[in-house]
Structure formats: C-alpha cells, structure tokens
C-alpha cells in the first residue's frame, strides 16, 4: 500500500470543520457514507489522526490551499503553474503551460505578478486529490495537488455545488461516492455496500444474534459487516 498524503477537510464534533487539511493513506481505518444534507452523500474517512471528508465548498478549498490566489468569483489559481497573464480592458486571462487558460477579474490582476514571485519560493504541495473525471465513465484516482492549474465550482445536480480541479489532462471533480472511493482505494475491503475498511487496522469482531460489528485497533470506531463478508474474513483475522 502507498502512503500518499491526501487533501481533505477535518470534521470535528457536530459536523464542524477542524484545522487539519490532510491525512495519510495508511492511517485510514474505514470509509462510510455521510449525508450532511438530504440531497447528497459524501464519504467520511475515519483515520488514526481524525475524521475527514472531501471538500464541498469554495471556502474549504481556499482554506486548504492558502498559497493559491483568487482570480475570479469561485476561481482559485495555482500560482506556481502560471506561465503568462494577459490583461484586457474588461478583464484578463491567465495561462498555464502556455495553453490552458482561466479567465480573471481585472481587479484581481495587479498583485498577481508579486504573488507569482512569492509562490516560486514555496515547496511543491506533496498532497494528493481524491477526484473523478468530470466526463462520465472515468475512473476515480489520487492526483498530485501540485499539478492543479486552477479550481472552480460545478453543479453535478440541482442545488449541489462541489469543487472542480483543472489539470493539463482535463477537469476532475472531488470523489463523492463509496464506489468512487473503492476505485481510488482498491486495497480497502467492502464490509457492506456503504462501508470500506482497512484490514490492517481490524482487531476483531463483535458477533451478536442480530449482526456482526467490526472492531479496530486503537480506535473507538466500529462498523457493520455483512454475514457473507464476515465468514470470509474470520478465518484470517
């Protein structure tokens, strides 16, 4: 198993945001569905260092990438990837690698050259983004955050805004489902249709007449497991 550092938003008690913006892949204990609002679900990552979820607002992306700069409403630019800036009478264009482009509000451009020079002194971001291609049919994966060109917001369905990350290879949206988690974290075991678990973290099982619960090392977190999955695992754990 790799041990990539993954960009995510920490969730503390009562659904409030914490101050951490990453966790390591090997620290994952389990992933389950979370329904913070009635019209959508997102994954909740239980780890050895806290509980996290994917960023679902522009504010979370701003907080998670403090070295990016706002270019327009809802748009953040990775200053280390900017190649040229074209200023016009009514706005501007920011180019990356000479071709990929983002529009920019004219009012945001005067300080960009200074920001870019400052960004060159910073280390590359070592984190990865859990994302899926914006075009249908693509497979979710972990993508290097340092390769992001810019971010904006997209509406996958009515009244549902999520961040979109633009790379040279195309646009990617944050991963939102357990199926997408399974594709990006293939080493995790599907305990149920809505739960993935790290078998290296399992300490045992609590077997009751009404069902089986998975127990984990050094953690209070537990999750259900289907009977057939339990029967396959109990001989090994």
Description:
- With 237 residues, the chain is mainly β.
- The strands form four sheets. Strands 1, 3, 7, 8, 12, 13, 14, 15 and 16 form a nine-stranded mixed sheet that branches. A six-stranded antiparallel sheet has the order 2-6-5-4-18-17, with helices on one face. The protein has a three-stranded antiparallel sheet with strand order 9-10-11, with no helix packed on it.
- A hairpin with a 2-residue loop joins strand 5 and strand 6.
- Helices cover 12% and strands 46% of the residues.
- The radius of gyration is 20 Å and the shape is elongated.
- The mean pLDDT is 88.
- Among the domains are: 115 residues, no CATH class; 42 residues.
State the major sheet: 9 strands, mixed
Q: Structural class, please? A: mainly beta
Regions with little confidence, pLDDT below 50 for 5+ residues:
none
Helical proportion, percent range: 10-25%
Order of helices and strands: EEEEEEHEEEEEHEEEEEHEEEEEH
The value of Rg in angstroms is 20 Å
Distance between the termini: 19 Å
Number of strands: 21
Proportion of strand residues: over 45%
Mean pLDDT: 88
Helix count?
4
The shape is elongated
């Amino acid at each position: 198993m790799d041990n990539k550092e993954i960009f995510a938003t920490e969730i503390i008690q009562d659904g409030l945001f914490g101050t951490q913006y990453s966790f390591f892949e090997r620290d994952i204990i389990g992933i389950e569905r979370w329904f913070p609002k009635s019209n959508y679900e997102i994954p909740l990552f239980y780890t050895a260092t806290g509980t996290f979820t994917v960023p679902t607002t522009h504010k979370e992306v701003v907080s998670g990438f403090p070295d990016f700069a706002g270019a327009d409403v809802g748009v953040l630019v990775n200053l280390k990837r900017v190649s040229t800036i074209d200023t016009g009478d009514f706005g501007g264009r920011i180019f990356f690698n000479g071709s990929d482009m983002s529009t920019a509000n004219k009012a945001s451009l005067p300080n960009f050259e200074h920001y870019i020079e400052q960004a060159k002194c910073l280390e590359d971001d070592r984190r990865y983004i859990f994302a899926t291609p914006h075009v249908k049919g693509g497979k979710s994966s972990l993508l290097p955050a340092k390769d992001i060109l810019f971010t904006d917001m997209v509406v996958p369905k009515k009244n549902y805004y999520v961040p979109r990350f633009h790379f040279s290879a195309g646009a990617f949206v944050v991963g939102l489902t357990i199926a997408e988690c399974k594709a990006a974290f293939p080493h995790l075991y599907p305990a149920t249709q809505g739960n993935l678990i790290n078998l290296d973290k399992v300490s045992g099982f609590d077997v009751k007449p009404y069902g089986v619960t998975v127990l984990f090392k050094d953690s209070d977190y537990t999750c259900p497991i289907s009977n057939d999955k339990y029967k396959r695992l109990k001989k090994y754990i």
